[in-house]
Amino acid sequence: MNTIQLWCALLLGVLVAEISSAAETSSKLNVLIVTGGHGFEREPFFQLFKDNSEITFTAAAHEKTNATVYERDDLLSYDVLVLYDMPKNITDAQKAKFLSLFDKGTGLLVLHHALVSYQHWPEYERIIGGRYPEEDGKGGVITPQVGYEHDVEVPVMIVAKYHPITAGLKDFIIHDEIYWGFRVQPDVTPLITTTHPKSGKPLAWTRTQGKSRVVYLQLGHDHSAYENPNYRRLVAQSIRWVAAR
Q1: pLDDT tens digit string along 68-103?
Q2: Is the dihedral of CA 12, 13, 14, 19 positive or negative?
Q3: Which of 36, 163, 171, 217 could form a disulfide with 204 if both were Cys (CB 3.0 to 4.6 A apart)?
Q4: C-alpha 132: how far from its chain's center?
Q5: What confidence tens digit (pLDDT) does each residue in 223-239 have?
Q6: In angstroms, rounded to a whole number, what is the distance separating the alpha carbons of residues 154 and 32?
């Protein structure tokens, strides 16, 4: 092989690699991960998504005042939004942008403390399928009727055994935080539950909003949950399902 042929071969190899890389990137789900309003263990949480080879993601946090992520110009460009946020306030303009997701068919995965967001916006509760109620809006108040407990061994039972989100999963135990006293809307489809006597039930569900699929997953407080292979599978398969590809 002469020099010209060698350079042509090398150039062709580079072009093939670039095309292959571009095709792989375009086939991945484009995910926006929304945080803000509640503390969390950042590194292990985002590692959960870095280890998911099916997605590429952008992390965005609300400012302290309200739900500023919904003001993004690229909001409707994502396949899936993952909510791990807990803002208290949302403006009318932000509500409109959030609701536009369901006209487009953007998938929505709501995790853990995002069940507490927007205590004074009933539409949010209807969309995600439930609410952890906080009368004072400050959090931290635990009563026999409504509350939470950290560092609990939670037995998880698969309810929807043939759903794509629970595919390949068997009943398992996870070290996590439980909630009790949260409301669940009647139009949801339960995915998993628990026999823990204090925990609310179910622990995850699905529903449809407009053109979008919605999943709520109550699990996911800290690294003990993020690193649990069953939780990782639930999150990955929820993202895939709500994307409806």
Answers
A1: 999 999 999 999 999 999 999 999 999 999 999 999
A2: positive
A3: 217
A4: 17
A5: 999 999 999 999 999 99
A6: 29
Full-model pTM: 0.89
Both tokens of 179, joined, read: 């909630």
Q: Give the mean pLDDT of 5-19.
A: 48
For the chain, what are the domain ranges?
27-243
Q: Which two tokens stand for residue 155?
A: 């037995």
The single-letter code of the amino acid at 151 is D
CATH class of the structural domain 27-243: alpha beta
Buried b (16+ CB within 10 A) or exposed e, 18-29: eeeeeeeeeeeb
